[in-house]
């Protein structure tokens, strides 16, 4: 069972590419952002707590996210593989994922970062805001907060996976098709 992680700034195209990868390779797409938005919609206990944090552009607590993640892994125990989108997002989450996967005799195979400039992603998110109406896309201030949180809390993961020789980058500032082909080239090596 393969485990690939898509990494990158908010709006980098993780969700778009993870959906294509899941379809092509018959993997389960795990987006912790989508799962949290589902909890919010259902007004669950986790959802109510997450809503306040997400709407301000802050990360949700590691323990809450990991609980949701674990449930998804258990429910899809017979999956051919997983493509993670927006997870892990802190060093603690990366370490916990390794512990969990090791206990299941599995591993993270590769972590692939979609690289592109902040100007482009802000423009993409602003465009998406008009279509999807996500609360955390509503203002440039919130988007900038998400970007700042990415730099301080998420980026340290890069070194964690680099040290394990599992870290790759692709150019995110291309068409969806070219980005997808570049990602597949890496995944196909596994
Ligand atoms: P999450 O839902 O993960 O949001 P994000 O990381 O901010 O990323 P986005 O979903 O905004 O962007 P994306 O990279 O998926 O890009 P997309 O494909 O949509 O998380 C939301 C919040 O939930 C977090 O802020 C946090 O509070 C909480 N959370 C989630 N996971 C957590 C975790 N693990 N721990 C703690 N908290 C967590 O593309 C963006 C737009 O661009 C789309 O409109 C798309 O159509 C378009 N687009 C994509 N590719 C291209 C292209 N090549 N060319 C032109 N347009 C493109
Ligand atoms: Mg997304």
SSE topology:
Elements: E1 2-7, H1 14-25, E2 28-31, H2 32-41, H3 45-55, H4 62-75, E3 81-85, H5 91-103, E4 110-115, H6 118-132, H7 140-154, H8 156-163, E5 167-171, H9 176-187
Parallel strand pairs: 1-3, 1-4, 2-3, 4-5
Helix pairs in contact: 1-9, 2-3, 6-7
Key structural traits:
single chain, 190 residues, alpha/beta, five-stranded parallel sheet, 9 helices, 5 strands, binds BIS(adenosine)-5'-pentaphosphate, binds magnesium ion
- In which order are the strands of the major sheet placed? 2-3-1-4-5
Distance between the termini: 11 Å
Can you give the mean pLDDT?
97
Largest sheet geometry: 5 strands, parallel
Uncertain segments are: none
Spatial shape: globular
Q: Please count the helical segments.
A: 9
Structural class: alpha/beta
What is the number of strand segments? 5
Question: Approximately how much helix is present in the residues?
Answer: 55-70%
- Assembly context of the chains: single chain
Distinct small molecules: BIS(adenosine)-5'-pentaphosphate, magnesium ion
Strand percentage, roughly? 5-15%
Give the SSE order as H and E letters.
EHEHHHEHEHHHEH
- Give the C-alpha Rg: 16 Å
